[in-house]
User: Fold this.
Amino acid sequence: MYRIGFIVVLILAIALGLLIGTLNHEVVVVDLLWTQLHWPLGLLLLAALATGILIGLMLLWMFTVLPLRMRLRKARRAQTGKSGITDNSNA
Assistant:
């Protein structure tokens, strides 16, 4: 079921990317301090969207997932210390 959902989302993302790319094919100039980029508007929009998604996922991981993993590690250490059980899975 997961694989079917992934394939459907992938097909929709490709279709949306093609639609944005074909409807916004005009070349625009992005003037950075050290260079100028001459990119199609659709590519620029998709690059900005992808960059925003990646930055958002990194912030989510840094401020949600990482602290929860640290709390879980601390709780497991406390539980192991209380019960006297040692983890010999590395041996």
Observations:
- Residues 18-82 form one domain.
- The longest strand covers residues 27-31.
